[in-house]
Write a structure and sequence with these properties.
15 helices, 3-stranded antiparallel sheet
Length: about 500
């Protein structure tokens, strides 16, 4: 609080904003205002550890992460070259398809699987590091380039010093005097793996300086000047942990209460009950119950059956409300987080999905495509030209020509709607009204319009060659128009 604000409050003046008041409701509020770098410098390690712990053992945290990855990446965000030459464009797309199967440096998945892996690492740890690995021409790859996804622990947040070349290192990232990223100082292995990592080398804790051109740093920027990422579960960590503990405690309470079927009271405890088994090593003998059992009680004995208390009618609503708060913090819908569809209809779930998909599209184009896909595409294209796999005149020397060769449209996986018929009818109306192109409509489903057109042409040619006529083929109208000689009714003329 500034000097003049404190002076006004001292004389009893009303604060300009309620949030700056010093009443009873604000006594426990001790706000801080750290910068974008300082806010994560001392908290990122703990936030990341708690986030990973919840994803490992908390079903709801894992479900939220999986839901976002499945919607943001799905089967992959695919490129479509915008080069005008159709033959060259097809050559580039064919070479890219061959390379995607060999893109993983570990050989576990393809390029689109690496997108999902990097996205999941970004959600759990706040960020992901993607290293471009250039290979030898004799390695037999379609293009001598592979990708390695690293967790953010490889980039030490505690490495803050002045480099020997005069640059500054902040949170493991080296900046020049203009504030540009020039290098990343990475551990050879994960700090918690040590010598267990295959590439640990000596101890695995020494850092290696990697040029920034070979590193893709994937994270969601939330503040200007931010250099490291924030885990997406940061605002839901405490609530998720306590909610998990509460649900477990409720389960244990119900289980403990249900284990006691009844209690027998008797005047002489040394006497054995009918049906009581022998005592175990601890001296405890339990009376067993079977279906249809009739128990005869001796004089002085009484049976009181257990009546455990129910969780109450508010338990489900309380859990539902808490899960809504967790879903809002994670950026997913309540239904995606819990799988509960009991209180939804077509309109409500569609409205929720529209808002969620708008958020997904912002992450797709503003983070995944911009930070990951485009740098990989540029590096892949440059390597393909360098090896002679692609003939692109002026790519190396002419910046304008290079931008034209690199022009690309990235197509995410298409959305699946609740009622496809309504969505298709709306799309058909937009196309006929000139508000939407057919290519854009095809791209909204995650397909390349040119590939779809080639498949349709091939299907039609094969059907014509075999003499097949389908009612789904619009070329064959089952209701041909009337002959030209037939008179047109007056009513039809008015309609025209």
């Amino acid at each position: 609080m500034g000097f003049w604000s404190r002076l006004k409050l001292a004389f009893g003046a009303t604060p300009t904003y309620d949030g700056v008041g010093a009443g009873r409701r604000a006594l426990a509020w001790m706000p801080g205002n750290p910068g974008a770098v300082a806010a994560l410098l001392t908290t990122q390690t703990e936030l990341r550890a708690k986030s990973r712990d919840l994803v490992r053992r908390n079903a709801w945290a894992a479900a939220g992460i999986e839901a976002f990855v499945a919607n943001a990446i799905g089967t992959g965000i695919k490129p479509q070259s915008l080069i005008e030459d159709p033959g060259l464009r097809e050559t580039i797309q064919a070479l890219w398809r061959d390379w995607t199967e060999e893109a993983d440096a570990q050989g576990l998945t393809d390029f689109y699987g690496l997108q999902a892996l990097a996205c999941r690492a970004m959600l759990e740890g706040g960020e992901a590091l993607v290293r471009l690995r250039y290979r030898r021409p004799d390695d037999g790859l379609a293009v001598a380039l592979q990708i390695q996804v690293l967790e953010p622990e490889h980039l030490p947040v505690t490495l803050n010093r002045l480099a020997d070349n005069g640059n500054v290192i902040r949170a493991g990232i080296e900046f020049d005097r203009l504030g540009r990223r020039v290098a990343y100082h990475l551990y050879r292995s994960h700090p918690e793996d040590g010598l267990l990592a295959p590439m640990s080398g000596g101890s695995g804790m020494e850092t290696v300086r990697v040029p920034a051109a070979e590193i893709v740093h994937l994270f969601r920027p939330l503040r200007p000047g931010q250099i490291r990422g924030e885990p997406w579960l940061a605002r839901a960590l405490v609530k998720l942990n306590e909610l998990d503990q509460y649900d477990d405690a409720e389960l244990v309470r119900k289980k403990t209460a249900a284990m006691f079927a009844g209690f027998v009271t008797r005047d002489q405890p040394e006497d054995a009950l009918m049906g009581e088994g022998p005592a175990d090593a601890s001296g405890v003998a339990l009376a067993g119950l079977e279906p249809g059992t009739l128990q005869i009680l001796e004089p002085g004995e009484d049976v009181k059956f257990s009546q455990p208390a129910d969780v109450g009618g508010s338990y489900a609503e309380f859990m539902r409300q808490q899960f809504r708060a967790v879903a809002a913090a994670m950026g997913v819908t309540y239904e995606q987080l819990t799988g509960d569809l009991t209180q939804v209809n077509y309109s409500s779930i569609r409205a929720g999905l529209l808002e969620f998909r708008r958020r997904c599209e912002a992450i797709q184009h503003g983070v995944i495509v911009h930070q990951l896909c485009r740098p990989v595409w540029r590096a892949w294209m440059a390597q393909a030209v360098l090896e002679g796999r692609l003939e692109l005149p002026g790519f190396a020397r002419d910046a304008a020509r290079r931008r034209a060769w690199l022009a690309c449209k990235w197509i995410p996986q298409g959305w699946q709607w609740v009622d496809p018929q309504k969505e298709f009818n709306a799309m058909l109306t937009a196309i006929r009204a000139g508000l939407l192109s057919r290519s854009e409509a095809v791209s909204s489903f995650g397909y390349d319009a040119e590939d779809v057109d080639r498949e349709i042409a091939a299907d039609n040619a094969r059907a014509d060659a075999l003499g097949l006529v389908f009612d789904s083929d619009p070329r064959h109208d089952r209701n041909p128009p009337a002959a030209a000689s037939d008179p047109v009714p007056p009513q039809d003329i008015q309609d025209l």
